[in-house]
């Protein structure tokens, strides 16, 4: 199906791919907590996917170790446009206390462009929900811009 | 269009089966068409997702089906060694054994 039809006929809500780029797992636990009945982020349509090929959003936790850098680049490249990247947690957004470490190449925005920053160590599920709400707005704007470019004949 | 074949267990209608296959094929094509076609060909978007790694050669990560029976074959090695020794792989020899055994059985049954 063409992208124009896809976005107009079957506009789906956010499908998210999470990537731990060297996190202590604290933020990942909070991401899982946001899916539990107390916060239930799936009621907003957010769905975790097992492959970047189906994702609209890349959720990155951790300060990006050297080992994870090529994986982060590859996974980012494999997500189809339009896409949004959310850096989750202090490590992903700034490197936090590890930012001078010899084996880090992050934070995330040194490797891939980041659209939304969610701070916290670890993040609160409420903060993640706010970040996702911002991502929805950004993604809709990106989708509209992409469709406009296509309509103008500039290609994707 | 097609006649039904009736048996003691029910009936079999070729037309109904063809209609069912056509319906299923149509549904499959419709679902396939729903897939996105805007992947950038020749880039990483076209590659297999392998946890962010470059996909290695198939020999490295493929477990052949024969491996599933490794323990079974290992435990029954003495049995299989005799059994495989009996099997030469020559079809004419197998047919010969078949004819010989059939003749032997028929001798017992008919004579």
Keywords summarizing the entry:
heterodimer, A: 156 residues, alpha/beta, Rossmann fold, 5-stranded parallel beta sheet, 37% helix, 13% strand, globular, B: 111 residues, mainly alpha
Give your account of this protein's structure.
The complex is a heterodimer of chains A (156) and B (111). Chain A has 156 residues and is α/β, with parallel strands linked by helices. Chain A has helices at residues 3-9, 26-33, 69-78, 90-94, 125-151; strands spanning 15-20, 47-48, 57-61, 84-88, 116-118. A five-stranded parallel β-sheet of chain A has the order 2-1-3-4-5. The mean pLDDT of chain A is 88. Chain B is mainly α. Chain B has one domain (10-110). Chain B is 54% helix and 7% strand. Chain B has five helices and two strands. A two-stranded antiparallel ribbon of chain B has the order 1-2. The longest helix of chain B is centred in the first third of the chain and has 20 residues, at 14-33. Chain B is flat and about 75 Å long. The mean pLDDT of chain B is 86. Chain A binds chain B through residues 1-3, 6, 10, 19, 51-53, 68, 70-72, 74-75, 77-81, 156, and chain B through 33-40, 43-45, 47, 49, 51-54.
Low-confidence stretches of chain A: none
Query: Mind summarizing the main beta sheet of chain B?
Result: 2 strands, antiparallel
Order of helices and strands of chain B: EEHHHHH
Radius of gyration of chain A: 16 Å
How many independent structural domains of chain B? Answer: 1
Provide the residue-averaged pLDDT of chain A: 88
The percent of residues in helical segments of chain B reads 40-55%
Kindly name the structural category of chain A: alpha/beta
CATH architecture of chain A: 3-Layer(aba) Sandwich
What's the tally of helices of chain B? 5
Overall body shape of chain B: flat
The count of β-strands of chain A is: 5
* Structural domains of chain A: how many: 1
